[in-house]
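Repro:
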Amino acid sequence: MNSLFLIIFFIALFLEGTVTNLPLVFISLVIITIAMRNLFLFLLAFISGIFLDAFALRPLGETSIFLLLCVFLMLLYQRKYEINSYPFVSLASFVGSLIYLLIFGYGNAFWLAGASIVVGLLLFMSFRIGNRNLESANLHLKT
């Protein structure tokens, strides 16, 4: 399951760096943070931020700082809030994407942040369905 997340993440990195203005890397980091919840996420956020800055011809490290801060905040509040829920994914996708788009000067930030909610919810829904199918397959193998 983790390898599937990484494949989706690298596809999002490629698409955001070359084709689209949607913060796909941020959205996939939200979903991967919900799924994995470990320190590997900080390395992933740092490296992806460096690549995104290189693609966008920005000073290296700006996006990395933003992504690292977002992953840190999500992991910090995982005990206080239920982060494995649709409302959290919606709110985190919208607010994080809006801040990202405003900081880095993208046009139509509000509409792109709204589209980020849809992409985030679709990814999260597929994660939950895949996780449920994986758990049921493991139960059938144990019996």
